[in-house]
From TrEMBL:
<keyword id="KW-0813">Transport</keyword>
<feature type="compositionally biased region" description="Basic and acidic residues">
    <location>
        <begin position="291"/>
        <end position="307"/>
    </location>
</feature>
<feature type="domain" description="ABC transporter">
    <location>
        <begin position="12"/>
        <end position="245"/>
    </location>
</feature>
<keyword id="KW-0547">Nucleotide-binding</keyword>
<dbReference type="InterPro" id="IPR027417">
    <property type="entry name" value="P-loop_NTPase"/>
</dbReference>
<dbReference type="GO" id="GO:0016887">
    <property type="term" value="F:ATP hydrolysis activity"/>
</dbReference>
<feature type="region of interest" description="Disordered">
    <location>
        <begin position="260"/>
        <end position="307"/>
    </location>
</feature>
<dbReference type="InterPro" id="IPR050166">
    <property type="entry name" value="ABC_transporter_ATP-bind"/>
</dbReference>
<dbReference type="InterPro" id="IPR003593">
    <property type="entry name" value="AAA+_ATPase"/>
</dbReference>
<dbReference type="Pfam" id="PF00005">
    <property type="entry name" value="ABC_tran"/>
</dbReference>
<dbReference type="InterPro" id="IPR003439">
    <property type="entry name" value="ABC_transporter-like_ATP-bd"/>
</dbReference>
<keyword id="KW-0067">ATP-binding</keyword>
<protein>
    <submittedName>
        <fullName>ABC transporter</fullName>
    </submittedName>
</protein>
<dbReference type="GO" id="GO:0005524">
    <property type="term" value="F:ATP binding"/>
</dbReference>
<feature type="compositionally biased region" description="Basic and acidic residues">
    <location>
        <begin position="269"/>
        <end position="279"/>
    </location>
</feature>
<dbReference type="InterPro" id="IPR017871">
    <property type="entry name" value="ABC_transporter-like_CS"/>
</dbReference>
Amino acid sequence: MQRHAKTGGSSLVVEDVGKTFGHGTDEHRVIEGLSLRVDPGEFVCIVGPSGAGKTTLLRCLSGLIRPTSGTIRYGDEPLTRPHADIAVVFQDYRGSLLPWMRVRDNVAFPLEGMGVKRAERNRRAEECLHAVGLADVGDKYPWQLSGGMQQRVAIARGLAYEAPVLLMDEPFGSVDAQSRFDLEDLTLSLRADLGITVILVTHDIDEAVYLGDRVVVIGGRPTTVVDNLQVDLGTDRDQITTRADHRFTDLRTRLLTRIREAQAPAERTPARPEPKPAPDETPGGGTAKDGIPKDSPAREKTARAVR
Ligand SMILES: Nc1ncnc2c1ncn2[C@@H]1O[C@H](COP(=O)(O)OP(=O)(O)O)[C@@H](O)[C@H]1O
Ligand SMILES: [Mg+2]
């Protein structure tokens, strides 16, 4: 598959975002004061417990819904609606593939609404099916495929947009363990081949550490960022050796601790002091290592939440 013309795209910057559903006595503040920055080419996993607002955050990042407060920018532009640079793979393939359409047409279908001509739609669909290891199933219907294969079709459809940013919402939650490992490795190799930015939300801490260059932990009531960890496991990951690496298990322990602390604020133990970044890593007026602009008011809030 050819490299995407717009490899990496622009940065996605979330500043002090809040999202509330309902009104009056039905009001439910799901997210508050959440700040986060993802740079072109990064693979960032957002991990948090079920119901924390992961899907809500991803829908905000896709431009499908608007935050109640705060801003989301893609590059220099405020993100207020879906953007051609940002594709989404939704949580459950069973609800997103159309059973009466052949696999090839399922992949090509969304491109029709973007004005892509039929020949180009079919070319992209075949190319993307090939990229996910399904070169020979274009003529089948989704229900003729296993769950893991159907989820590959959903990923192929996300890739067909040729968008430099791919958002994935618990994309492997509905498949068996072996297919899940295969799909994780497929996602890593697609990211390496295409140079795209990937933001993947999951409740699975091990999956987040295995896939991410960085893991952002969200939690609390309402939900905000409670930790932001660089994953220094290199780019060459392996389901057996990487998961057995002590650095992997150390990261998993720290993430689990953070999530538990966020779930039970009254029982929080004092957090370890954050290591101070070296001066050359955070040039004046720029962005600190955790991805939040140094001069942002959201930095203060996030720091408070971590403590
Ligand atoms: N459209 C909506 N209207 C009302 N409440 C919603 C809506 N979408 C999500 N919620 C609520 O927001 C909370 C977070 O949901 P969600 O983002 O799906 O969490 P997660 O993906 O982390 O499991 C849940 O309590 C859910 O009921
Ligand atoms: Mg969800």
